[in-house]
Amino acid sequence: MTNKEFFLKTIRDEAPKFRVAIDALPEDKLSHKVHERSREAGNLAAQLALQWKAISGILTAGAPAFNPHEMENQSKADMLTKFDEGMSTLMKDVEAISDEEWENGEAAMGDMWKDKKYNMSWGFLFDAIHHRGQLSTYLRAMGAIVPSIYGPSADTKN
After folding, report:
1. Rounded CA separation 150/116 (Å)
2. Which residues, in sequence order, are CB contacts of 83 under 8 Å at separation 6+?
3. Could you tell me which CATH number the domain at 3-141 has?
4. By the number of CB atoms within 10 A of the CB, which of 19, 64, 68, 137 ranks highest?
5. Which residues are 36's β-sheet partners?
6. What backbone phi and psi angles, to 5 degrees, belong to 100?
7. pLDDT grade, residue 158 (50/70/90)?
8. Which residues pair with 107 in a beta bridge?
9. What is the DSSP string of 4-68?
10. Distance between CA atoms of 147 and 140, rounded to whole angstroms?
């Protein structure tokens, strides 16, 4: 299995886990924060909804297609729609990129990060996994049901 094939498999395996985490967020708790310096739960979920668009930008244009203002004032329905659209597009973009471009294509995030497309794509995926875990702790703190992500949670026991 190539690195690109493994990335696509990982995205396919992880997609439902991201979607269920976003869907578990109660609509009336989008502004919940676990600490005054922490991000709002809705902001975290909105990032999870949009992260896939950013990775598509890395693959197709050599730079993350990410506008932080898109994370503002999103309903859960908006987030789930953007997630579904972004994930579908990302899967197509990963399938379409040549192995040569995946391995050797350059990507940049301003002056902060310059790397190969594959490495930046993995970095953005790992960042999303981190934020999904962060969101799951918010869910518990706000009294919502923590979904089963990597096996049963204390709330689902399935």
Report:
1. 29
2. 18, 19, 22, 48, 49, 52
3. 1.20.120.450
4. 64
5. none
6. -60, -45
7. low
8. 115
9. HHHHHHHHHHHHHHHHHHHHTS-GGGTT--SSTTSPPHHHHHHHHHHHHHHHHHHHHHSS----G
10. 10
Residue pair 83/53 in contact (Cβ under 8 Å)? The answer is no
Alpha-carbon span 107 to 110, nearest angstrom: 9
| Cα–Cα distance measured from residue 125 to residue 83, given in angstroms and rounded to the nearest whole number | 14
Closest CA to 128 of 64, 59, 32, 60: 64
Give per-residue burial for 15-38: e unless 16+ CB within 10 Å, then b: beebbebbebbeeebbebeeeeee
Question: Encoding tokens for residue 103?
Answer: 């391995």
CA distance 89 to 101: 18
Cβ contacts of residue 67 below 8 Å, gap of 6+?
Answer: none
Q: Find the mean pLDDT for residues 90-101.
A: 98
